[in-house]
Specification:
six-stranded mixed β-sheet; 24% helix; single chain; 11 helices; alpha+beta; five-stranded mixed β-sheet
């Protein structure tokens, strides 16, 4: 019998672990870091700073059509949080999010994203985990049709990912090469969705798929946290079955809602706006949970259920992140085009909430009113205040060390069992000895501690290496916990990592995870 609270409580605290459940062998053999802190080093301290809420805002007309204009000013928008008018602190027009129009700025991999500044990117996901084989095949055809309608050099850097029965993988790295993406989609053959067909819309299997989806979304958020601009996530598939929490024991319902809330917070913190596209012609199905071991199908729903209404649905991620949930349409190629267009024409503005309460459990609603009544604004519905300990469970002093260790192991496993590039930290790797590599970490992603008594600041990080064979099987890994003193020139951190390869390795992946802010960066070396 599946222990739902245990499964989802792990999901709540894992940032990027697709291997959140027992199906991932890598999670069972995750690295166990050895702490090597310098003498006299003390645990990080956290300074509470003023909260800034950043909103990406799409302007529509009364019919819901995108308004292509760049001349709106801050005074044309009124932002309300919980009904209180907020002062706009910063404002950017759509023209400030454009791709640089130079050949040197064309993106061919995630490493090139630093060239594009604050321009948006697109994340395409094919959901084979929760879709029938027929729906998955139709989704592939429609994605190819959409791509074929685009210019040879795409307007936005685009990455292609797929959620399968047991894994979440990248089919193609970020690129603006339309034909390369078309080729990747055509070459990928959908898996038979045995995980869904075996469990349907009820039972422990449905709960496991919910956990897999939550972990995949958190992995997307964490892997792209170093990309400055908006990320438009186009999720093509059914997503996990909706869960009706009415009648469920309160502590168990709280766990599910907390898992959903934290996943939404991660997406918003990484500026991910989600557009869900359900390829099934009829409506979605609501799943009612009678107990933690079984979920029973109970009826139909016509759209997303908001939090607080006693249910959790996959399509709710769209409204909660400022996107749109599309259902019951067979022109998926046009829907993809519409979602991506809305994701590239947006204003960005920020405010500092007048309510300075740190009550994390209370939802803060956001509403934007346009001065011009012929226009309306589309942005996220609100947010939950978040503490540093929630962003990174290692800092949660009340959490048991066993859980902290499990979270770290799962976090690392998620990054080691995929080819998805993580850019939360800027990591570079170079061989510095027969069995040694030097890793350098630079940029703004480093979480420096507050100055100590001697004025020094540090970064505490987990440093990992994993190596793979020609079939991309993980052959082995090594991990250590390191501490780096902040250099006087602010040049970042350097770590030495001994690596003794085993087996016929053809690729080496390095990973650095910051202990203070949970950011992760990867660097891959091929032999």
């Amino acid at each position: 019998m599946l222990n739902l609270p245990r499964l989802l409580s792990v999901t709540v605290t894992v940032f990027a672990a697709w291997s959140v459940a027992a199906w991932s062998a890598a999670a069972q053999t995750a690295p166990e870091p050895q702490v090597q802190n310098p003498a006299g080093y003390q645990a990080p301290t956290i300074t509470v700073k003023t909260r800034i809420v950043v909103l990406d805002v799409v302007v529509l007309d009364k019919k819901g059509s995108l308004v292509w204009r760049n001349d709106l000013k801050p005074e044309d928008f009124k932002i309300y949080e919980d009904g209180q008018l907020q002062a706009i602190r910063s404002f950017e027009a759509p023209s400030q999010h454009r791709m640089p129009q130079t050949a040197a700025a064309v993106v061919n991999s995630a490493a090139d994203l630093k060239k594009i500044g604050d321009a948006p990117v697109t994340i395409l996901v094919l959901d084979e985990l929760n879709s029938t084989f027929q729906d998955s095949s139709f989704s592939r055809q429609q994605m190819v049709k959409y791509l074929q309608s685009q210019p040879a050099v795409l307007k936005q850097p685009t990455v292609l990912m797929v959620a399968m029965n047991t894994t979440f993988q990248q089919l193609h790295d970020y690129t603006q090469d339309r034909d390369a993406l078309i080729d990747a989609v055509k070459k990928h053959m959908p898996e038979y969705p045995w995980a869904m067909m075996g469990s349907g819309k009820s039972g422990p299997g449905a709960v496991e798929r919910m956990a897999q989806n939550l972990a995949a979304l958190q992995q997307i958020a964490q892997a792209s946290s170093g990309t400055q601009g908006r990320k438009n996530l186009i999720w093509v598939g059914n997503g996990f079955p909706s869960a009706n929490l009415v009648g469920m024991p309160q502590d168990e319902a709280d766990i599910i809602q907390e898992a959903y809330r934290r996943c939404t917070d991660r997406l918003m913190a990484a500026r991910v706006t989600m557009f869900t596209i359900n390829p099934t012609a009829d409506t979605t199905v609501t799943v009612e949970a009678d107990d933690t071991a079984d979920l029973d199908s109970t009826g139909d729903e016509g759209g997303p259920d908001p939090m607080g209404e006693g249910s959790v649905s996959f399509s709710s991620f769209a409204a909660d992140t400022g996107g749109i949930a599309y259902m019951g349409r067979n022109d998926l190629n046009h829907v993809m085009d519409e979602g991506i267009a809305r994701g590239q024409e947006y204003y960005t503005m920020s405010y500092s909430p007048t309510n300075t309460s740190e009550e994390a459990a209370k939802f803060r609603s956001i509403k934007i009113v346009m001065v011009d009544k012929n226009l309306r604004a589309l942005t996220r519905d609100g947010y939950y205040p978040e503490t540093a300990a929630e962003r990174n469970p290692v800092l949660d002093k009340e959490m048991k060390q066993k859980q902290v260790k499990a979270n770290l192991q799962l976090d690392i496993s998620g990054a080691l069992t995929t080819q998805i590039s993580y850019n939360g930290l800027d990591v570079k790797a170079a061989k510095s000895g027969a069995d040694e590599y030097t890793l350098t970490v630079t940029g703004n992603g480093i979480g420096w501690t507050d100055p100590g008594a001697n004025g020094e600041q540090h970064e505490e990080a987990t440093v990992v290496a994993g190596w793979y064979d020609a079939k991309d099987k993980l052959l082995g890994h090594v991990a250590r916990e390191e501490v780096c003193a902040r250099p006087a020139d602010n040049g970042g951190c350097t770590y030495k990592l001994p690596v003794t390869l085993t087996g016929k390795a053809v690729r080496l992946r390095f990973l650095v995870r910051d202990a203070l802010n949970g950011r992760m960066g990867t660097a891959d070396v091929k032999f």
